[in-house]
Amino acid sequence: MGRKWNNIKEKKAAKDKNTSRIYAKFGREIYVVARQGEPDPELNQALKFVLERAKTYNVPKSIIDRAIEKAKGGSEENYDELRYEGFGPNGSMVIVDTLTNNVNRTASDVRAAFGKNGGNMGVSGSVSYMFDETAVIGLEGKTEDEVLEILMEADLDARDIIDEDGTIIIYTEPDQFHAVQEAFKNAGVTDFNVAEISMLAQTDIKLDNESQAQFEKMVDALEDLEDVQQVYHNVDLGE
Q: Chain-wide mean pLDDT for the chain?
């Protein structure tokens, strides 16, 4: 799974170029999750998850507080969670998760982003069967053996544990996401390099330079859409 972490690193590095866009997307997601349940992360596991992920992207507290206060204020702004699936150059596969208050607009925008960049939208299920929902947690300051010992003591399992240049990456079941984080916090880990539930491709593919450039242009177009929250794919963008 090491190559998949390379894709996550690429994504996290790119975020620095678009911090305002990333913050806006988190603000929307925090508002929606807080409005769906309690606006208190200790009482709302979904909200707690979003806030943990926001921390790894250095989302300012002011944006988080504003989104939660908006949810507390009884705003009538409603969003639908929709997933689109599609294809890019040479067998590349893409999953697009959105939050939208205008389904027709979002569907049209996503379709256009695919079509104008050498891709096409597929039907529901045409791509997602090739991906696994996986909790990904990255941390520093522990060895692989120490990480394994912490997990065993907490009676937790991992799909895989990999050392990527000093960062230990733990792949585990989505329903163990919070428990794994708590186990490491209890062991003295205060910060995580990555902490998210992702859709990871079962098999990654490599593209030639021309196809990869076209693919990256397509992904950029999708991520630039206001309603798009996450884009997952099966292309190995590592060197």
A: 89
